[in-house]
Amino acid sequence: MNTAARGTLFIVSSPSGGGKTTLIRRLLNNSSGGEPLRFSVSHTTRPRREGEMDGREYHFVTAAEFEEMARHAEFLEHNEVHGNFYGTAKSEVLPRLAAGEDVVLDIDVQGARDIRAAYPEAISIFIVPSSAGVLADRLRKRGLDTEDAIRKRLINAAKEIAQAEDFQYLIVNDDLEKASLELESVVRASRLTPARQGKILERLRKDFR
Q1: What angle do CA 184, 168, 43 make, to 5 degrees?
Q2: 43-44 and 123-128: which strand pairing?
Q3: What is the pLDDT of residues 24-35, one digit of tens each?
């Protein structure tokens, strides 16, 4: 029996402003004492926002650098979102999974669809706000977009929510503590499968012979 279990790839998606980045940050902070859980830092051509750090929120690259990576098939997926390009580099994901580490992706719905096609074993989780009004308020409070841009994001959110059934899990982010616990529960449950408990099973089989 092969007891060297691969890590699990977790896809976390939501409409823009849905709260996935905050929930992922809390998940990573709460997992420091357990099994390894790594965050896959995406590449993007969008400008860096105030407070962001290259290599932490994103790998910020030029359009030419992004195109070069795409030409050399360095991405698991890459897409254009709101006029900027985003991509998940294979180097951020595949070596970690092979080493038995779990990896979490903060990714839009289009990218999630492509990742599921490239890596069907992934566990996909969709985060939704409790209402369109709540999402609109969050987008306005961020202070990053014009009213026209917010309207476009809300139209896009409606299209993304229509695809929620393509995901394995749905979390309504109307209470941050509750949503954080639910996201952590999905990760914890995935680690209790026989495949992930292979070493323990092998030891028990030997013990009960």
Answers
A1: 75
A2: unpaired
A3: 999 999 875 567
Q: Any idea which residue has 């709260």 for tokens?
A: 19
Distance CA 196, CA 140 (A): 42
Q: Do 6 and 123 contact (CB within 8 A), yes or no?
A: no
State residue 3's pLDDT score. Answer: 44
Q: Which of 208, 22, 9 is nearest to 118 (CA)?
A: 9
Neighbour-count burial of 200, counting CB atoms closer than 10 A to its CB (0-12 exposed, 13-18 middle, 19+ buried): exposed
- Domains by residue range for the chain, with CATH: 9-40+100-207 (3.40.50.300)
Residues 6+ apart with CB under 8 A from 46: 58, 60, 82, 84, 85, 86
Per the prediction, the chain carries an average pLDDT of: 91
pLDDT in tens, 107-137: 989 899 999 998 999 999 999 999 999 999 9
